[in-house]
Design brief:
Radius of gyration: 16 Å
Structural class: alpha/beta
Largest sheet: 7 strands, mixed
Strand content: 15-25%
Number of domains: 1
CATH topology: Pyruvate Kinase, Chain: A, domain 1
CATH architecture: 3-Layer(aba) Sandwich
Distance between the termini: 35 Å
Number of strands: 7
Strand order of the largest sheet: 1-7-6-5-2-3-4
CATH class: Alpha Beta
CATH superfamily: Pyruvate kinase, C-terminal domain
Oligomer: single chain
Length: 191
Amino acid sequence: MSIVERKVVYFKEAGVQNTDTVLNLVKEYVEKEGIKDIVVASTTGETGAKASKVFKGNNVVVVTHCFGFREPGKQELLEEYRHEILTNGGKIFTGIHSLSSAERAIRKDFGAIQTLELIANALRLLGEGTKVCVEIALMAEDAGLIPADNDIVAIGGTGRGADTALRIRPANAARFFDLRIKEIIAKPQNF
């Protein structure tokens, strides 16, 4: 029988106040584990810019959401952060959420919940950040920005900032059930 013991950090509360701690924990983790691919969720780009600095030299993919998600026509990724991410060697992917897409419109207009939203809500049982980490891993894999045959670390959060980090073996959306959450590095207890 083989047993692996790992340190997991649990935050008392979810939120942006955990961002720097998550980034430092992940830096230590990826250096120890030899992981080169880090996927980070970022709306304004602030968390993505911090991550691109902390993980400079790695394959850092900052995943934002589609334009107009919160306010139609408003670009949420701020130019100063976009510039910093790219200057630090990070990549930016902006796209539709892989766990909602047009299904969200069907729910809003017709009141019928669809399969992807059921999956998203099931992942939220472990916290919003867990859902975000899985979703951005799918999105980055679909875009060809991370390898499917190597573990990655995905960093997500609840609202703004980062409070969750997972080691994931990614898959693209068409192979969703091949994705594996292999380890929890950090997550909030109360979300």
